Amino acid sequence: MHNLLERHSDDALESLSQGLVVSPETLESHLHVGNLFRRRGDIEKAIHIHQDLLGRAGEDATLVSQVRLELARDFIAGGLLGSAEELLDELVHLQGEPISLEALDEQRLICEREKDWPRAIELAARLVPSRPELSAALANYYCELAQDKGRTGDRSAMQELLREACRVDRHCVRAMLMRLDCELWRHDHPAAIATMGELARDAKAFVGEIVPLLRRYDALGVPVVSEFLRGLAESEEVPPVILAVLAETEDDEVARQWRDSLLQRVEQHPSWQGIGEYLDVAGRDDKKLTVIEKIAPIIIGLYRTMPRYRCGKCGFAGRELHWQCPSCHAWNALRPVISPL
């Protein structure tokens, strides 16, 4: 039925909605017509249909609540957040009704949109017991608030919020990386080693993200950090950037061994990332000049324009790591891209 509705013109859909009797049996079709207009971007018509439907819903509390929820979603889509929140507040107070949780979730999304992180945390915490999948969003709200505290220099509050993020979602990669940032900032290298070990154990795909942080705080030359990286490099799953860093920071003879290890890794597991890292490192070796040096800058240039992260939900790709996808707005959906040849 819904597939057939989607093929109709706007005028036909509106006429159908006006001519169809409102009842529990036809409510879904009515709502679907309004939602179709909303998805097509005609917010004004969606609001008109749902407001008309509200006037025809009679005294049936369930029908009225469902129409109000869709009308609130129309208002949200149209940027009329104040009008939406008035409707949602009424629905949230319907304690024990499933629709109250749906309304609460819409309020959470409004707070997310407005970057009202304290309120988003409050709402998400109320939803998590019935919707455990929201733990990832809640952890990211704590991270957003921690990031705000970091910008103002309140590192103590920042670290406390990161602890909350990890409590809510102990596998939150963002919280672990931000915690690592704090530990390197205060030169607490033993704690940093522990956090990097946690990342290597629980989030192997993101291990390469430690390198920019180590560079930022000049920690690559710290003996315990170098020792940790050497241990990490023994794993077959280590990203090429770790081998490249060792080839860059070790003494000449040892560095050459790491370059050979990187080349071997690229030969066994070919990827554009591996090739780019190898050519970049090999280009610094004055004793190893070959004809490939002419093509290397081109290949490296191409590699540096390739997407580094891709959203597992909608396919969005880019070179920056976004914890919330800019396209579909899912949290923790972007993963590092390992591009095979």
Overview of the molecule:
With 341 residues, the chain is mainly α. The chain folds into four domains: 2-114, Alpha Horseshoe (Serine Threonine Protein Phosphatase 5, Tetratricopeptide repeat), CATH 1.25.40; 181-236, no CATH class; 239-305; 307-341. The chain is 66% helix and 2% strand. It has 18 helices and three strands. It has helices at 2-6, 10-19, 27-39, 43-56, 61-77, 81-92, 98-114, 117-127, 135-151, 155-168, 173-185, 189-202, 210-216, 223-233, 240-249, 252-268, 272-282, 292-303, and strands spanning 309-311, 317-318, 334-336. It has a three-stranded antiparallel sheet, with no helix packed on it. Strand 1 and strand 2 (317-318) form a beta hairpin. Helix 3 runs parallel beside helix 5 (61-77). The relative contact order is 0.05. Residues 1-8 have low confidence and may be disordered. Keywords: Metal-binding. This is LapB rubredoxin metal binding domain-containing protein.
Summarize the structure.
This protein is mainly α and 341 residues long. The chain has helices spanning 2-6, 10-19, 27-39, 43-56, 61-77, 81-92, 98-114, 117-127, 135-151, 155-168, 173-185, 189-202, 210-216, 223-233, 240-249, 252-268, 272-282, 292-303; strands spanning 309-311, 317-318, 334-336. Helix 3 (27-39) packs parallel to helix 5, helix 4 runs antiparallel to helix 5 and helix 15 (240-249) runs antiparallel to helix 16.
